[in-house]
Amino acid sequence: MDPHDSGRTLSGVPDGRTRRARIRPAIVIAVALLIAIAASGPWPSRWAPQAPVITGPYASLLAASSNLGPSHAVDAQLTVTLSTLARPATLMNWAESRGLAVRWRAGDDWAVVAGSADRLAAAFDVPVHDYLGRRGQVFYASPQQPVPRADWAVRSPPSGGS
């Protein structure tokens, strides 16, 4: 390359080589930033602060599946762990007031809360979406873990799905 060649034509306008040489580093930097952002995973700020993002194998399952949007399942359910072996009257009253049902057997320290996906989502303040798995199976799930509240009478966050 000629050291006296400024990369400009006789009219003083940069030629194509110089323009491309300036654009290439910008494209490389932009692509590197996009890759770094994508590799960092879900941003917690995208979710409600009270509902942590699901992690572990369950998160891997959701990441490998196609999110079909809000679930329209009428028979969704989740399992909750109870704080005692006693009848979960508080949970049952809470669920009933939200149009949900609770299935529980005497002596069990867990119960199933059931109802439509949209009512479960509203009651537990998490999104419930349908997903399409790699093998074509459709299932509902939430990418967020509900945070237990005192009025649920549970010992740990509910979990579940179909």
Strand-helix topology:
Elements: H1 16-39, H2 56-63, E1 66-70, E2 76-82, H3 89-96, E3 101-103, E4 110-115, H4 117-124, E5 129-132, E6 138-141, E7 154-159
Antiparallel strand pairs: 1-5, 2-4, 2-7, 3-4, 5-6
Description of the structure:
It is a single chain. Residues 43-49 and 154-162 have low confidence and may be disordered. The strands form two sheets. This protein has a four-stranded antiparallel sheet with strand order 3-4-2-7. A three-stranded antiparallel sheet has the order 1-5-6, with no helix packed on it. It folds into two domains: 1-40; 50-159, no CATH class. With 162 residues, it is an alpha+beta fold. It is 30% helix and 22% strand.
What structural keywords apply?
single chain; 162 residues; alpha+beta; 2 domains; four-stranded antiparallel beta sheet; three-stranded antiparallel beta sheet; 4 helices; elongated; disordered C terminus
The structural domain count equals 2
What sort of overall outline do the alpha carbons produce when their principal axes are compared?
A: elongated
> Mean pLDDT, as a whole number?
77
How is the largest sheet built, in terms of strand order?
3-4-2-7
> What is the number of strand segments?
7
Question: Runs with pLDDT <50, length 5+?
Answer: 43-49, 154-162
Q: Summarize the main sheet.
A: 4 strands, antiparallel
Count, helices? 4
Quickly give the structural class: alpha+beta
Helix content: 25-40%
User: Beta fraction of the residues?
Assistant: 15-25%
Could you provide a short overview of the structure?
The chain is α+β, with helices and mostly antiparallel strands. It is built from four helices and seven strands, in the order H-H-E-E-H-E-E-H-E-E-E.
